[in-house]
Specification:
It is built from 12 helices and 12 strands. A 7-stranded parallel beta sheet has the order 8-7-6-9-10-11-12. A 5-stranded parallel beta sheet has the order 2-1-3-4-5, with helices on both faces. It is 36% helix and 16% strand. The longest helix has 19 residues. It folds into 2 domains: 111 residues, Rossmann fold; 176 residues, NAD(P)-binding Rossmann-like Domain (Rossmann fold), CATH 3.40.50. Helix 4 links the parallel strand 4 and strand 5. By secondary structure, it is an alpha/beta fold.
């Protein structure tokens, strides 16, 4: 008899299809009443498949008395209650992978798109406006100062790419990094004043929630650009919408939002914003590798073998 798995949210379709072949799946995201679904499937569920964004709460675990393993497609950062999993003896696995370069690539892509107005001019051409008028002009990339919030694995790769394009990186974080020559700003407002663009690559923590507020955006100024590949709540939503609408900043490239997959309608109507559906780590190569690791973790658990990627 196939082990029963609860899948919390859609994942890479080929991986979902492979799971279907080996396990009995319960798709939580399709249930009109998720609480009722959890109660209905609870007697048989032995494993859960989730993602880093969705995770697994203590409440979900406690509704599943036979839960043995939580297999995460991606890397949970505080979204799985590891303490409760330990108490219950539930194994937790991830699909640790190298996404730093991939996310940094998209950050630079967003920076180019919004500063050079690539998407806006694409719409201009498609609308048939070119023969009748003049395209909108963008801004030079080279020579600009790029302020990076969070010089970790992703932020440092953004800085390296920025240098290739003759930008001048600087950074803000809780502390100065040893061995880093880029200028450091302990005060984010002061860094925003000194930069042409801010790129957010920090984790979402109680300290970074709402970090980019009206003061920071006003310091960035009407010629400044914002790129966010971190998490939506790092930026104050109302402050950003107002700053973009009032042209108090020049534009924004956003890969993350506050209530994904919902995007504020005000942003959808703005020409000076480039929007992505949280694609920072979404490439075919990464999804294939995550799927392979997810399946390997589940197969190992249900065959009594050591877990390849335990947390």
């Amino acid at each position: 008899m196939k082990p029963e798995l609860l899948v919390t949210t859609p994942i890479y379709p080929p991986t979902l299809a492979a799971l279907e072949q080996e396990f009995t799946l319960h798709r939580l995201w399709t249930a009109p009443d998720r609480g009722a679904c959890l109660r209905d499937v609870a007697p048989g569920v032995r494993g859960m498949v989730t993602t880093g964004l969705v995770g697994c709460s203590r409440e979900w675990m406690d509704l599943l008395p036979k839960l043995e393993i939580i297999a995460c497609f991606g890397n949970p950062h505080g979204t799985v209650d590891l303490a409760r999993a330990r108490e219950r003896g539930i194994a937790v696995t991830n699909t640790k992978d190298a996404i730093s370069d991939t996310v940094a690539d998209l950050a630079m892509g967003l920076l180019f798109a919004v500063m050079r107005r690539i998407c806006e001019n694409d719409r201009y051409v498609r609308a048939g406006k070119w023969p009748e008028g003049k395209p909108v002009m963008g801004r030079e990339i080279g020579g600009k100062t790029c302020g990076i919030v969070g010089l970790g694995a992703i932020g440092s790769r953004i800085a390296a790419r920025a240098e290739v394009f003759r930008m001048k990186p600087c950074y803000h974080g809780p502390r100065r990094k040893d061995g880093v020559s880029y200028p450091y700003f302990g005060d984010l407002v002061e860094m925003a004043k000194a930069t042409d663009c801010l790129v957010l690559a920090c984790p979402l923590t109680p300290q970074t929630r709402g970090l980019v507020d009206r003061r920071v955006l006003d310091a960035l100024g009407p010629d400044g650009f914002l790129v966010n590949v971190a998490r939506g709540p790092v930026v104050n939503r109302e402050a950003l919408i107002a700053a973009l609408g009032d042209k108090r900043i020049a534009g924004a490239g956003l890969d993350v939002f506050w209530d994904e997959p919902h995007v504020p309608p005000e942003l959808l109507a703005m020409e000076n914003v480039v929007l992505q559906p949280h694609m920072g780590s979404s490439t075919e190569e990464i999804r294939i590798e995550r799927g392979r690791k997810l399946l390997a973790n589940l197969r190992a658990h249900f065959s009594g073998q050591p877990l390849p990627n335990p947390m």
